[in-house]
Every structure is written in structure tokens, then in C-alpha cells.
Design goal:
The complex is a heterodimer. By secondary structure, chain A is mostly beta strands. Helices cover about 0% and strands about 55% of the residues of chain A. Classes of the chains: A mainly beta, B mainly beta.
């Protein structure tokens, strides 16, 4: 089993739906991250949690709502999304601190119709 | 502001050729960390290497090697004798400390798509 898992791997939702993305890390890390990867754009950091406390919210619209109930789990709750929110959403974890690399999950490919 | 530039959008080589992926970064920090990640078609970013700003020694790992030069703010990645399995998007990233250093954020370049033809 890989160190960081994400479910679902693919998601199609309408603009009025509510759904959640789940991420779980099995590496004993204390920081977790959500990134958005759109076509032709650099990876964009959305949220950072350190020891279950949100430390970064990178000007993300409120239709994206993160939740980190413990250091192993991270959720991204989605509601009333727009078609431009269609992207690959990647979760990552790290030991914390600038010296440590981040380990990524396989991502959730989200399509908003 | 921190920035990472990967000027090569796409590179195509034939198997067994050597290929170098360029990365140029900008930062005002005196201590920083640089990374390379590989993203195969499956989508998952795979960590390849981390380098801190105080260590300018080149590193070699099998067919992979990295050339870090602070004087030119570059951290280039060379694949020797490329193989079809090397086909992927490669990202260079710069680390920026957050929350008093308790965690970090990665600033990614736009990536270089490497296609290795058989």
C-alpha cells in the first residue's frame, strides 16, 4: 500500500452537488496539504495543516472547505463548484519543516459538469 | 517573491540518449531547499531528490544526476541513457517555510514533459 492514499480516484459532479475528497497518510507525518493541478498551470497550494491546525489558506474560494480530524486524515468538502474547478486534486504529507520532502497521493480527477 | 522556472515545456528524445532538464529558481532566503518530482501518466508525484542550499555537491543516483549551482540559481537534472519508462512530467520545486518553520510549502515550476521514444 502506498504511503498516501486518496479516494475517490475519479469524481464527476454537478454544480449543485456536495461531495468530499478523502486523503489518508500512513507515514506518521504531522503536516498535510491539498494542491490543485489544472491543465497548463503550475501546481497550486490550496491548504496546509500542521498538527491538525490549518496554517495556510491560499485564497481559496469558500466552496472548498478542508477538514483535518487527525494527523492521518484530510478531507476536502466540495459544494456548488464551477466548471473551472475541474482539475486533479492532490494530497500530500510531510514530516513538517522546510527540510522535509512531501509525499503525494495519486490524486482525485474531478470533473464538474 | 519565490519563483521556479522550467523553460522547457516538452522534450522528446530517443531511447538511450542523455537528456538534461533545466530548473532556475529565485529566492531571497539564504537557507532553502530544492526538490525534483516525477509525475508519470498515473498522476502521482514521485519524490526524486532534495537538496539544501548549503550543499553544492552534485549528486548521482543510478542513471539520474543533479547539478546544483548557486551562482546561477540553477538545479538541473540529467537522465543518462534514457528509457521509455522515464517518460513523465518532471517538476522542480522550491521550499518556503511556513508557520515559523513548522511546515513548508512547495513552489513548483510548470514542469517539463519528457517523451522517450523507443
Amino acid at each position: 500500500e502506498t504511503g498516501v492514499t486518496q479516494t475517490p480516484r475519479h469524481l464527476v459532479m454537478g454544480m449543485t452537488n456536495k461531495k468530499s475528497l478523502k486523503c489518508e497518510q500512513h507515514l506518521g507525518h504531522n503536516a498535510m496539504y491539498w494542491y490543485k493541478q489544472s491543465a497548463k498551470k503550475p501546481l497550486e497550494l490550496m491548504f496546509v495543516y500542521s498538527l491538525e491546525e490549518r496554517v495556510e489558506n491560499n485564497s481559496v474560494p469558500s466552496r472548498f472547505s478542508p477538514e483535518c480530524p487527525n494527523s492521518s486524515h484530510l478531507f476536502l468538502h466540495l459544494h456548488t463548484l464551477q466548471p473551472e474547478d475541474s482539475a486533479l486534486y492532490l494530497c500530500a504529507s510531510s514530516q513538517g519543516g522546510g527540510a522535509y520532502e512531501q509525499y503525494f497521493g495519486p490524486g482525485t480527477r474531478l470533473t464538474v459538469t | 517573491a519565490q519563483k521556479v522556472t522550467q523553460a522547457q515545456t516538452e522534450i522528446s528524445v530517443v531511447e538511450k540518449e542523455d537528456v538534461t532538464l533545466d530548473c532556475v529558481y529565485e529566492t531571497r532566503d539564504t537557507t532553502y531547499y530544492l526538490f525534483w518530482y516525477k509525475q508519470p501518466p498515473s498522476g502521482e508525484l514521485v519524490f526524486l531528490i532534495r537538496r539544501n542550499s548549503f550543499d553544492e555537491q552534485n549528486e548521482i543516483s543510478g542513471r539520474y544526476s543533479w547539478n546544483f549551482q548557486k551562482s546561477t540559481s540553477s538545479f538541473n537534472f540529467t537522465i543518462t541513457a534514457s528509457q521509455v519508462v522515464d517518460s513523465a512530467v518532471y517538476f522542480c520545486a522550491l521550499s518556503e517555510a511556513l508557520y515559523g518553520g513548522a511546515t513548508n510549502k512547495l513552489i513548483f515550476g510548470t514542469g517539463t514533459l519528457l517523451a522517450v521514444q523507443p
